[in-house]
Amino acid sequence: MSILREVGRELKRAEKIHKPIHSAHEGFGVITEEFIEFVLEVFKKHQDTQAMRKELIQLAAMAVRTIKDVIDTPNTNTQDKQEAIRERVFRKDTVFDHTKQSPF
After folding, report:
1. Is residue 103 part of a domain?
2. Does residue 94 sit within a domain?
3. CB-based contacts of 87: which residues, under 8 Å, 6+ apart?
4. From CA 51, how far away is CA 41, in angstroms rounded?
5. Residue 2 has pLDDT above 70, yes or no
């Protein structure tokens, strides 16, 4: 399967389980999260190339999604934006969860 097809599949999967990205700032956060997950894989003592590949596919998909949701569709409801941002900021499954020990 081609890499671009994999990115497309990941994009569709993410769109089914997560609300749209509502701002460039939110997109930055999502992309940064995926980048950090890739970095964590890179700096493991025993690198897992499949895990790195998976994170890069997710990173590419979130970059495309940010373009799609924010740049190409800029007119979304402000209240929906704020709700989506709060949901993303306070998610417990993210590497940015302040209650977890920092990986750095």
Report:
1. no
2. no
3. 19
4. 7
5. yes
55-79 pLDDT, tens digit each: 999 999 999 999 999 998 866 555 5
* Domain span including residue 14: 3-87
Structure token pair of residue 19: 């609300």
Half-sphere exposure of 56 (CA within 13 A, CB side): 10
* pLDDT tens, position by position, 23-61: 999 999 999 999 999 999 999 999 999 999 999 999 999
Question: How many structural domains does the chain have?
Answer: 1
- Residue 82 above 70 pLDDT? no
In 3D, which of 104, 102, 12, 101 has the Cα closest to residue 57? 12
Q: Which positions ≥6 away from 101 have C-beta within 8 Å?
A: none
